Amino acid sequence: xxxxxxxxxxxxxxxxxxxxxxxxxxxxxxxxxxxxxxxxxxxxxxxxxxxxxxxxxxxxxxxxxxxxxxxxxxxxxxxxxxxxxxxxxxxxxxxxxxxxxxxxxxxxxxxxxxxxxxxxxxxxxxxxxxxxxxxxxxxxxxxxxxxxxxxxxxxxxxxxxxxxxxxxxxxxxxxxxxxxxxxxxxxxxxxxxxxxxxxxxxxxxxxxxxxxxxxxxxxxxxxxxxxxxxxxxxxxxxxxxxxxxxxxxxxxxxxxxxxxxxxxxxxxxxxxxxxxxxxxxxxxxxxxxxxxxxxxxxxxxxxxxxxxxxxxxxxxxxxxxxxxxxxxxxxxxxxxxxxxxxxxxxxxxxxxxxxxxxxxxxxxxxxxxxxxxxxxxxxxxxxxxxxxxxxxxxxxxxxxxxxxxxxxxxxxxxxxxxxxxxxxxxxxxxxxxxxxxxxxxxxxxxxxxxxxxxxxxxxxxxxxxxxxxxxxxxxxxxxxxxxxxxxxxxxxxxxxxxxxxxxxxxxxxxxxxxxx
Length: 516
Prior knowledge:
Number of strands: 39
Structural class: mainly beta
Strand content: 25-35%
CATH architecture: 3 Solenoid
Number of helices: 4
Number of domains: 1
Strand order of the largest sheet: 1-2-5-8-11-14-17-21-25-28-31-34
Largest sheet: 12 strands, parallel
Distance between the termini: 47 Å
CATH topology: Pectate Lyase C-like
Mean pLDDT: 79
Radius of gyration: 23 Å
Helix content: under 10%
């Protein structure tokens, strides 16, 4: 009996490492974004989606070090007029309903968006619109798109265009394209904005974006731009300084919103899902900001995927998103050395995100360095595989380990996988003030990382820790060991002064551990 017990104790770590290494080989390998497209209706791997709990975070609460959203001071905006549509949040009652646990409890989960309204044709017998005026490139203009519009019109509020693509082909730096409620076909950007004069596409109310023709092709491996436009519902390519704001992007063949070879693009307040492969995908997109989006139901890979680097300072900002029910990872960052460039994403900020109920990892951080991960709530991932709620690692064969990062004030609850896992040469990461609940709170297979044994609260169970974890309320109880357990500074790195709800931390009593 003693021999058997000794054998088990000696082989268990090796078995864990072997299983997780095999998983890393599976999940770290970048997938070329021209591979096979699955039908967006493909079932997700037995994922149970809890009821969505909306949380609106004011975007004004931005630490000084965070790149600010370009000022709209000099951007022409439509004159105010009353409309019965909510425009300041993607989570209001006028927007699409996401499946709840009750909806999905009796069947194998197949995340499907609500039925699509028809793509409206222009009304029959409408008068001929006035001719299109030339667009001045040295002054900002406001354009409008409506389901009853006409692309031969001038795009004004009184005579709007019919398609967003017409607006995209016409808009110049500083212009704002307002899309009125309805269902529209996919579009791609044509012209770039300028610094402090972005081109803005904004939804005014419930605006649903569907594939060209209304349905995504299946089995298509896009080889040309025309084919890519068929499988990405909103495609930003080779156009800097673009803002995509407030759309509902449904049933994309490959990607709901993609940003490729473009700088300083902002993707905010969108609801994206289900999608054939990715919810939001970026490649070679320095300065991208992905803010306050909801992504769900990526049938093959990740809810949000920021990839590729060829510059020293990538500086992606991923803040206040919720991503859930995706086949693989909730959020993945990957320098992707095989794609060319320097192969390391630097200067990233991942803050205030909710990442839950995904098939594999919560945050998959591959070849990411000198970045900050703070105030995130990560729970119940690893539905059928995965390394950790937060996984710091290297792309296989790259030698670009995720090093020099600060992981601070996150709440991670992972019953199946490690809360934080560090592998494949990832060193010099500073980890403090995290609230970690699971059987494997921190798994450091490398060494050389600064992991504070006092301020990182490690617990086996969520019982007596949170207000109501069964209802996804992970704010700590007043009696929680996370209270006053943190520190303001560790290894010369400062903890965030605001929690994920934008509340100032009670520094006089000591920082709480975790995101709240």
